[in-house]
Amino acid sequence: MLKEGNMMPFPDIRDRMPKRPFLPRSIVSKLPFSSQEMDEMKRLFRAENGSVTARWIEAAVKECEREPSAGETKRCVGSGEDMIDFATSVLGKNAVVRTTEGVNGSRTEVMIGKVVGVDGGRVTRSVSCHQSLYPYLMYYCHSVPKVRVYEADILDGKGQGGARINRGVAICHLDTSAWSASHGAFLALGEGPGRIEVCHWIFENDMTWTVADEDV
Question: Its domain of life (predicted)?
Answer without folding.
Answer: Eukaryota
